[in-house]
Structure formats: C-alpha cells, structure tokens
Write a structure and sequence with these properties.
alpha+beta; 30% helix; elongated; 96 residues
C-alpha cells in the first residue's frame, strides 16, 4: 500500500442534492476537511446551488489530532493491529 494524502469521508447523492466531504493533507502539511453541498435544499437555504467549506488544522497539530483519535478509537494494541491489517497499512510489532 502507498501512503495516501486524500480520503473521501462521504459522498452522498440523492434526487435533491449531492454532499461530499473529503479529508486531505495540503502541500504545506496542513490537515483539511473540505466539503461541498449542492442541490435544491442548499439553494433554498443559501440562495445558491452549492455551498463549499473548509476546516483547516495546522500541520503543527496533526500529531495531537492523531494521538487523540487513536485514544478514542483503540483500547488495545490488538485492536490497532487488526485495524492496520484491514487497511493494509504496514507495521512492525516487537515484544520480549
């Protein structure tokens, strides 16, 4: 597996609209959530057919975000190993 810099969190299409949310690492290393909502409901609420938005977190806090997410998601090394295997992310496990 190759490292990734972009992942689609959701891409929902309905008869009345289309909503997409992507997480990505920018060229300068910031973490960005980038979203686009489009369709009839968006036009009714915002007066335009689409709404775009960004949540940018400084590259200086990526490790803080990562460590907090790991704490919230995993309760053991076995949980994390299983997840890494499912995602085909290489790792090493050492013990003695």
């Amino acid at each position: 597996m190759q490292p990734i810099k972009t992942i689609v969190l959701y891409d929902d299409k309905t008869p009345d609209g289309h909503n997409v949310l992507t997480a990505k690492i920018s060229d300068n290393g910031d973490l960005i959530l980038e979203g686009v909502d489009a369709g009839k409901d968006v036009e009714k609420f915002f007066g335009d057919s689409d709404y775009e938005y960004w949540l940018t977190m400084s590259k200086d806090f990526k490790e803080t975000i990562l460590l907090n997410l790991i704490k919230e998601r995993f309760s053991s090394v076995h949980d994390m190993k299983k997840w890494l295997e499912e995602k085909e992310i290489p790792f090493t496990h050492t013990s003695y």
